[in-house]
Design a protein that fits this description.
heterodimer; A: mainly alpha; 3 helical TM bundles of succinate and fumarate reductases; 5 helices; disordered N terminus; B: alpha+beta; Fumarate Reductase Iron-sulfur Protein, Chain B, domain 2; 2 domains; five-stranded mixed β-sheet; 10 helices; binds iron/sulfur cluster; binds FE2/S2 (inorganic) cluster
């Protein structure tokens, strides 16, 4: 099928937000619970050694994983929250895309800084 | 003691029917009808009984009585249903509340004004837009069973508009192009004989198009033809988003 030309009317950024939203959905639905279990419950219950876990997280792949997990989930939440506000009868707030994606972007930067310092 | 089947069939069918003549009345009202129960009646039969035997002023649409024409959709106890496929015994002896399809203006009683849908439908070009013109002498467009299967499910739509009545997004914002029309756009985008995807993009990915959908899925739940408009819209989102990424990576490509 032919590629699609993106016109002014088609709100060029929307597919990007939707892709981040979808990827974040997978992250927060499948990987977030596992991560919470490992980092909180499993460590607290002594099923997992804290130092070992920290070593794993400090590995470049571990850092990348944490970064994607948090940042994509933030974009998922921003998108979901924005549409929920429209549905709840607050379209004037929900339609301010820059506010929500902006917050997610700030969260992403903070997360990146944190992950690098781990 | 619980009533037995024969006791129940002796009880009348109680119908609370929405009545409204916008030209003559300011407020709609509900009118109660009680008619004899027959085990194999559908809700449309009950309405026709009322119209023929009790009250000829009641207005509603229907044509085929077999779930094909898509004109008999109404709210039955709050759910959008085809009344020719909804049996009275599903509710009997409880009262059955009949209202016009939600989210549409009422023309009269149970008849809705479907102009909005009829206006939107052609905007997504729900017909084959061949990629290259093909003269008749060159014969028909051939299609394999797999190519047919790619879009067949989405082609079963009978334009009954039940999905619009179920869709909360359309209920809040009637500019939304809505489930059936967007599913039809995807149906043609998926057709191997079609090359109109780019032409449809302007409307399908516009402010009123696929991105408004929040994937509630009620359209799919109520669809009498198992079209799965929610799934079609999700596929369209992924497909247009993929095109978008490609257009970003390969500018001018
Ligand atoms: S998609 Fe289903 S519910 Fe919607 S108009 Fe078509 S047949 Fe009716
Ligand atoms: S009367 Fe045709 S679908 Fe019900």
């Amino acid at each position: 099928m032919a590629g699609v030309e993106v016109t002014a009317e088609s709100r060029p950024a929307t597919p990007l937000w939707w892709l981040l939203f979808s990827a974040g959905g997978v992250m927060s639905a499948f990987f977030m619970p596992v991560t919470v279990f490992l980092t909180s419950i499993a460590v607290a219950a002594d099923w997992l050694d804290e130092e070992e876990l920290l070593d794993a997280v400090r590995h470049p792949l571990g850092r990348a994983y944490l970064f994607l997990l948090v940042s994509l989930s933030l974009f998922h939440g921003a998108h979901r929250f924005r549409y929920a506000l429209v549905d709840l009868g607050l379209p004037w707030l929900g339609r301010r895309a820059w506010l929500f994606y902006g917050l997610a972007t700030i969260g992403t930067v903070v997360c990146g800084w944190f992950v690098l310092r781990l | 003691m619980a009533p037995t089947d024969s006791d129940l069939s002796g009880r009348p069918v109680v119908m609370d029917v929405f009545r409204f003549l916008p030209d003559e009345e300011t407020e709609p009202r509900f009118q109660r009808y009680e008619i004899p129960y027959r085990d194999d009646d559908v809700v449309l039969d009950a309405l026709n009984h009322i119209k023929a035997e009790v009250d000829a002023t009641l207005s509603f649409r229907w044509a085929c009585r077999m779930g094909v024409c898509g004109s008999c959709g109404m709210m039955v106890n709050g759910e959008p249903r085809l009344t020719c496929e909804t049996f009275v015994n599903e509710f009997h002896p409880e009262p059955i509340r009949i209202e016009p399809l939600a989210h549409f203006p009422v023309a009269r009683d149970l008849v809705i004004n479907m102009e909005d849908f009829m206006d939107k439908l052609p905007t997504v070009k729900p017909w084959l837009v061949p990629a290259d013109p093909k003269p008749i002498e060159e014969g028909e467009f051939l299609q394999s069973p797999a190519q047919l299967a790619a879009y067949k499910r989405f082609s079963m739509c009978i334009n009954c508009m039940l999905c619009y009545s179920a869709c909360p997004v359309y209920g809040l914002d009637e500019t939304f192009i809505g489930p059936a029309a967007l599913a039809l756009a995807q149906r043609y985008n998926l057709d191997s004989r079609d090359g109109g995807k780019a032409e449809r993009a302007n409307v399908v990915t516009s402010h009123e198009g696929i991105w408004e959908c929040t994937y509630v899925g009620d359209c799919t739940r109520v669809c009498p033809k198992e079209v799965d408009p929610a799934g079609a819209i999700q596929m369209a989102k992924l497909s247009y988003a993929t095109d978008w990424v490609k257009s970003m990576l390969l500018p001018g490509g």
